[in-house]
Write a structure and sequence with these properties.
alpha+beta, five-stranded mixed sheet, 10 helices
Length: about 375
């Protein structure tokens, strides 16, 4: 990966620091006592020359470490390549710095002689430079590994965020599909109830059509909201019960036991209507006398408990026909929204009739508004 401008500055600063430390060591070495045949200016200048030559070579060595990363295969071939390049750099580097040092010594007319290049190679005097090359190469490997690790981590975070977004979109699509199944089912059953009164009670039919139009308006006003306050859901269910009251012509009694605090909780849109419809289908429709529907809502700890009961003949809990399209979709929607943190129980009431009870997390409607405001204020 190419070096950034700040990395070039760090390389320059590092080798400048090395030059200063080398200069301080040459000037204040306690082992050097008395007059020296070599002027103090020579080791000072050579310290900076050596450091800045290595500073110029460092970007190339870093590129080499990234180009032939140790994470890739055929490590023996790469090792031979690194050793060959190291020798090709360190031997000329040693000869060049020795030549510059010799030129400075001749400039001050010292009696020290130069060592031939072949002799320097035979004596392995280039090993100091080779070890410096290895150290820079190791730093290049560390840099390359860090950059690759950070890139993989950022990619993993991005993939996790994308996967979470896709899961949310999939969950929303599933919920929307369930709602598209539920709404026509509800509308068909309501129209069927209206058609049963066309000849017997035309005035009642007109009232039912008016109530149905109100129901459809409420449904459209809800839009695609996944969750709504329980108070709105109760209002919608009451409109449906008014239609059923007209259908049963005075043979239907509605009772409500609703906690005021429970009405502030969020619930899935169109949750209660399928439960009430199930009570009619498996209970009230089988009665000869007055039917009774009871709606209950209670805030119990951190749970919201909703129940719909009827006074019909009752059904066995395991009866397969009890889970029709409406109730089956309601189970699927609850599982999609809350996972294992929910339940929907259908059981026979010991006193007679059937009870459908839903338990889900209690979440005040303020959470929905707070989430919406936080989303709106998120920087684009």
């Amino acid at each position: 990966m190419p070096l950034k401008p700040v990395e070039y500055l760090l390389i320059f600063g590092f080798w400048t620091l090395i030059a200063l430390l080398s200069t301080a060591n040459a000037l204040f070495d306690p082992l050097v006592r008395g007059p020296s045949p070599i002027p103090r200016s020579v080791p000072v200048s050579m310290a900076f020359i050596d450091s800045y030559l290595w500073a110029a070579l460092t970007p190339f060595i870093f590129w080499l470490a990234g180009r032939f990363s140790v994470e890739r295969g055929n490590w023996l071939r790469r090792l031979l390549l690194f050793v060959g390049i190291g020798l090709a750099l360190s031997i000329p580097f040693d000869m060049a710095t020795d030549f510059l040092r010799y030129q400075q010594l001749n400039a001050v007319q010292t009696t020290l002689g130069d060592v031939p290049p072949v002799a320097r190679v035979r004596r392995l005097w280039f090993m100091n430079e080779f070890l410096i090359y290895v150290a820079i190469l190791a730093a290049g490997f560390a840099r390359d590994y860090f950059l690759r690790y950070r890139a993989r981590r950022e990619e993993a975070i991005a993939l996790q965020a994308q996967a979470a977004q896709l899961r949310a979109q999939l969950a929303g699509a599933r919920l929307a599909a369930l709602r598209t199944q539920l709404n026509p089912h509800f509308l068909f059953n309501t129209l069927h109830a209206i058609s049963a009164l066309v000849e017997r009670d035309p005035r009642g039919v007109r009232r039912m059509i008016a109530r149905l139009s109100e129901l459809l308006r409420l449904s459209l006003d809800g839009g695609n909201d996944t969750e709504i306050p329980l108070a709105r859901e109760i209002d919608f269910t009451r409109r449906y019960l008014e239609i059923m009251k007209i259908r049963f012509e005075g043979r239907l009694e509605i009772r409500e036991h609703l906690d005021a605090e429970a009405l502030t909780s969020l619930v899935p849109n169109l949750l209660l209507q399928p439960l009430v419809e199930n009570a009619f289908k498996h209970g009230i429709d089988r009665l000869e006398g007055v039917g009774r529907i009871e709606l209950r809502a209670a805030h119990v700890g951190d749970r919201l408990v909703l129940s719909v009961s009827d006074n019909g003949p009752g059904i066995a809990t395991a009866e397969p026909s009890a889970d029709g399209l409406g109730l089956g979709n309601t189970r699927a929607r609850l599982a999609q929204l809350y996972g294992a943190d929910q339940s929907l129980i259908l059981r026979a009431d010991p006193a007679g009739g059937t009870i459908v009870e839903a338990s889900l997390p209690f979440r005040p409607a303020d959470e929905l508004r707070t989430s919406a405001v936080a989303y709106d204020e998120t920087p684009a």
